[in-house]
């Protein structure tokens, strides 16, 4: 079954600290993996997208890594800010027969002052 | 507008009623997607349009759900005989050409079925 599992489910960190969010997937065949940020009451906004041949992709203080062999990805946030408080959703594109995005449940991050 | 817009932002209805949710994609985007997001969950795919046609409607949960995009731009998601379990945020997204592109999401419509 094509699934995307994220951990932790929720996380609280202090402003200025770093954190890493995990994503494991069983989607196959796999085309690309994306991380989205979703603020409360808003639609998701794309942060990064990586194909199976890419190991890392950065977007400002956000760095995503991908290990296509172990089917794992991580999103590292550096020097967190209060505005980083949001849900971070890992999305894997399934490319077998039809093109569909499979979403994880997200990690809810709260950054406290 | 610059982004995807959805109306209404909130909709409260009674069980058994019919509702329509509207999505205005980014101008020029040929691909349009509908998702449903329950509290604490990631979005769940419902249907994907390429132009005027539904390229993939495998996510629609049952025949009470129907979506149209008659002119290849605005789309309407229609839910008949609403049930309390239909309560969720309905997200619309668009992308320039297809599923390989980044999807740009609207703010969603929060549907509450009493």
What descriptors fit this protein?
heterodimer; A: 113 residues; mainly beta; six-stranded mixed β-sheet; five-stranded antiparallel β-sheet; 59% strand; B: 114 residues; seven-stranded mixed β-sheet; 11 strands
Short description:
Chain A is an all-beta fold. In chain A, 0% of the residues lie in helices and 59% in strands.
Description:
The complex is a heterodimer of chains A (113) and B (114). Chain A is an all-beta fold and 113 residues long. Chain A contains no helices and eleven strands. In chain A, strands 2, 4, 5, 9, 10 and 11 form a six-stranded mixed beta sheet that branches. Chain A is globular, with a radius of gyration of 14 Å. The termini of chain A are far apart. The mean pLDDT of chain A is 91. Chain B has 114 residues and is an all-beta fold. Chain B has no helices and eleven strands. In chain B, the strands form two sheets. In chain B, strands 2, 4, 5, 6, 9, 10 and 11 form a seven-stranded mixed beta sheet that branches. Chain B has a four-stranded antiparallel beta sheet with strand order 1-3-8-7, with no helix packed on it. Chain A binds chain B through residues 4, 31-32, 34, 41-46, 49, 89, 91, 93, 98-106, 108, and chain B through 4, 35, 40-45, 48, 56, 58, 91, 93, 98-100, 102-108.
């Amino acid at each position: 079954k094509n699934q995307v599992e994220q951990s932790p489910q929720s996380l609280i960190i202090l402003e200025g600290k770093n954190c890493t969010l995990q994503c494991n997937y069983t989607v196959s065949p796999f085309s690309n993996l994306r991380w989205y940020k979703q603020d409360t009451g808003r639609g998701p906004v794309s942060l990064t997208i990586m194909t199976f041949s890419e190991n890392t992709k950065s977007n400002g203080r956000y760095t995503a890594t991908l290990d296509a062999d172990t089917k794992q990805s991580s999103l590292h946030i550096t020097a967190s800010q209060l505005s980083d408080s949001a849900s971070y959703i890992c999305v894997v594109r399934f490319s077998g027969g039809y093109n569909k995005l499979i979403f994880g449940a997200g990690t809810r991050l709260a950054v406290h002052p | 507008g610059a982004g995807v817009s959805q109306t209404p932002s909130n909709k409260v209805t009674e069980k058994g009623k019919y509702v329509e949710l509207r999505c205005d994609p980014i101008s020029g985007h040929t691909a349009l997607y509908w998702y449903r997001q329950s509290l604490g969950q990631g979005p769940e795919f419902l249907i994907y349009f390429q132009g005027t046609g539904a390229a993939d409607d495998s996510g629609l949960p049952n025949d009470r759900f129907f979506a149209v995009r008659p002119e290849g731009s605005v789309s309407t998601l229609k839910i008949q005989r609403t049930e309390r379990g239909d309560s969720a945020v309905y997200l619309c997204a668009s992308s320039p050409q297809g599923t390989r592109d980044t999807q740009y999401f609207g703010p969603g419509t929060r549907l509450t079925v009493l």
